[in-house]
Amino acid sequence: MQEDIAYLMDRMGEEGQVPADGTAVRPIRKLTRRLNELAANLEQNTALMNSKLAAIEKDMATMKAGSPDSKGIAELKAQMEADRKAQQAEINSLRNAMAGSGIQNVPTKPAEPTVSGTMLSSDKERDEYEAARSEYNNGNYDKAIQMLDAFIARYPNSDYAGNAYYWKGESRYAKSEWSDALKEFQLVVSRYPNSWKVADSQLKIGMCHMNMGDHANARTALNNLKRDYPYYGRIDLVNIYLNQLD
């Protein structure tokens, strides 16, 4: 979705359809930011859901079919899936709003597009990225870092490159390697500003500074997150950390 919007904005500029003051772009940028936030939250929640579902399946295997406990777990599993679909529906709704925004004469995106010279990710890339992230979810942080490094080396221009650096940061953060984790998160923000993980990286930058005792930079990072992503899905956590820094 980010690629669709970036393509749209680039082509609008090329065709000279955007006023010099940028007023026509502002609503698009707002939608883009919201889409990025939703996509990041969806990825994070999906990973959490998969972890919980694995535990649920294990519990259900020890229960008799039709027992009260098994029914309750089945209902929880259905609710988690419904929540995931609701998030995806909101993303689709925003995308449709973009398509129906009233902008005229916008060319159709080609079937095999490139965005800023970057080919869109293949299924193979996505599968390798997900395999590396699964190692993180399973607590195999060193293995995750190794696989993510290999992924980045193999697909330096992948749409998942920013996310890969983010999960490298999370892996190092889980190992309490605050300084190294901070570098990974800062790289996501500076090098991949359109990544789904920019807002999450900004949060982690603040948390790394907190763990290193640098409260001034922690406060700056968290306030920047609130300013740039007011609809961020974990804004409550941002406020908790800011209150701790007061």
The share of residues in helices is over 70%
* Largest sheet: number of strands, sense, barrel closure: 2 strands, antiparallel
Give the CA-based shape. globular
Average per-residue pLDDT, rounded, comes to: 73
Beta-strand level of the residues, as a percent range?
A: under 5%
CATH architecture of the largest domain: Alpha Horseshoe
Classify the fold: give the CATH topology of the largest domain.
Serine Threonine Protein Phosphatase 5, Tetratricopeptide repeat
Overall CATH class of the largest domain? Mainly Alpha
What is the H-and-E element order?
A: HHHEEHHHHHHH
CATH-assigned homologous superfamily of the largest domain: Tetratricopeptide repeat domain
Looking across the biggest beta sheet, what order are the strands in? 1-2
Tally of contiguous helical segments: 10
Content-based structural category: mainly alpha
Overall number of structural domains: 2
User: Can you count the beta strands?
Assistant: 2
Low-confidence runs: 1-25, 101-120
* Rg from alpha-carbon coordinates: 20 Å
Determine the N-to-C terminus distance: 38 Å
Protein described:
The chain is globular. The protein is 72% helix and 2% strand. It folds into 2 domains: 2-99; 121-245, Alpha Horseshoe (Serine Threonine Protein Phosphatase 5, Tetratricopeptide repeat), CATH 1.25.40. The longest helix has 36 residues, at 26-61. The protein has a two-stranded antiparallel ribbon with strand order 1-2. It has 246 residues and is mainly α. It has helices spanning 2-14, 26-61, 68-99, 123-137, 141-154, 161-174, 178-191, 198-211, 215-228, 235-245, and strands at residues 114-115, 118-119.
